[in-house]
Amino acid sequence: MIGGLQVGIVLRDQGLAVVALQRGRLRQAFTLEAQENPAAVLKAELEARRLSVHRVRVALQRKLATVKILELPPAAEGNLAQMVAFELERHLPFPAEEAVFDFLPLPAGRGEPQRVLLVAAERRTVDRALRLLEEARLAPQVLTVACHDLVALVGRELRTKHVVWAHLVGDDAEVLFLEGPRLRLSRSVPVADDAALATEIAKSLMLLRWDAPGGLWVSGDEAKKFLGSAELAALGAPATPPPLSPRARAALAALGEGANGLTLLALAGALGPRHRPLNLLPPALRPRELSPAQLVTAVNLALAALLGFGVLFAHGYQSSRHLARLNAAIRTLDPEVKTVERLVAELDRKRGLLKAVETARASGLHPLPLLRELTEIIPPDAWLTTLNLDPQSVELTGQATAANQLIPLLEASANLEKVEFASPVTKGRDKEQFRIKAAWETPVKPPAPAPPAATGAARPRGAPAR
Q1: Distance CA 138, CA 129 (A)
Q2: What is the pTM of this model?
Q3: CA nearest 185: which of 176, 194, 195?
Q4: 407: Cβ–Cβ under 8 A, 6 or more apart, which residues?
Q5: C-alpha angle 137/142/146, rounded to 5°?
Q6: HSE (side-chain half, CA atoms, 13 Å) at 28
Q7: Does the 156-244 domain belong in CATH 3.40.50.1820?
Q8: 156-244 has the same fold as 1-98+112-155+245-289
C-alpha cells in the first residue's frame, strides 16, 4: 500500500462499505448503496476523498458464501485438496464446477477422520466482485468472508478456549465460533430476538461438540439489546462486548456515528494481515508477496550473506598482511631454514636406516656385523643411500665411481652370496647409481658326530670270555 494505506471493502447484496486506514489510524470510512454503475461511483468516491490506492482487501458478506465442516478419511496432505474438491458436490447448494473454494485443516486425534473447514462461493459472485474492482481500477489483495476477519479486532493474544462471537448486521447475525484465535465455524442466521439467536448458537455448539462457550461476545447493530440477555447467558457465558485491541478501539472511536455492523466488518478487513487463510481469490490473481516468515528468512539470509562476505574480506585482508609479514621473516631466516632442511633430510635417512636395523633385529637378523664389513670393503669413492634387509636377501642402493667393481668385493664377503645387480646401472654427472641384491651366506653346518658303536655288556674284571 502507498504510504501505509490499508483499505478494506465489504460487498453485500445492496451496496458496499469502505474503510481506509493509514499507519493504523482511520483515514476515511463510507458506505455506498446500490448504484447502476457501482464501479464508477466507487472510483469517483475514492478520488474525491484523495485515497490513492491500488490494492484493496475485499470481503463478502457471510450469507454470500457457504461455510461447512467436512469429515474426510485420513489422507496425505498432498491429496487433501483433491479429496475436498471431490466432496464439494454433496455439500454445496450450487454445482461444484461453479464453485470457488478454499479450506482449512482442523486438528484431529490419531485414528479420527480428517476434518476441514470449507469456504465456498459461487463463481458468479466472485466474478462480480472482481469485475467491480477491475472497472474501478483496483486490484484485490485478498478475497475473504467478512466476518472471518473480525478476529483482527481483538489482537493476537486471544486465549479463551471456546468463544462464540455474534456480529449483528441489519436483520442478520454473523456468528463466529473461535478456538483461541483460530476459526472453527461461522454461520449467518436471521435474528428476531435473543431467544432465536440463542437457539441457533446452541445448534452449532452441538455440531462442534462444545459443552459451553468460554466467552460469548456480541457486536454490531443494536448490540446493546442482546448484552445481559438471560437467553444467551443460559448457553454458559454472559453476553459481553468483544475485548477489542487498542488499535481497533481507537479506529472505532474515530468512526463515531458512522460505526455500524457493516463498517466494523470493513474495519476488520483493513486491519487484518496480508496473508489470510480461507482466501477465495483465484491463485492467478494473488499478489506475489513474501509472507512474514519468508520475509524474515530472506532478511536473515541477506544479513548472513553480508556478514559472511564481510568476514571473508576481513579474514582475507588480515591473512594477506600476516602472509606478507611471514614472507619477510622467512626471507631473513632462509639460510637457517636451508641448514635445518639439510639436517632434517639427514635425520630422515638415519631414521630409515635405524628402522631397517630395528626391523632386521625384530626378524632375527643381525645387521651390525654386515654393516661393519660393508664399511670396510666398500671403497671410499662409493657410498650407500639405502640398505634393505630381510630374512632372505640384502638390497643395497647407492652411488659409486665404478659400480661393477662392487660385485667381486661383495662376493668376497663372509655374509653375502649370489651378488648381482637388481636393476641396470644408471649414469649421473660423475657417479653411477646402482642397486645390488644379494642373498645371505648360508652357514656351513658342522658334520654331525657319529653315534658310538654298540658294545657288549660289561664283564666283571677277570671273568673268562665265553
Answers
A1: 11
A2: 0.62
A3: 176
A4: 419, 420, 421, 436
A5: 110
A6: 18
A7: no
A8: yes
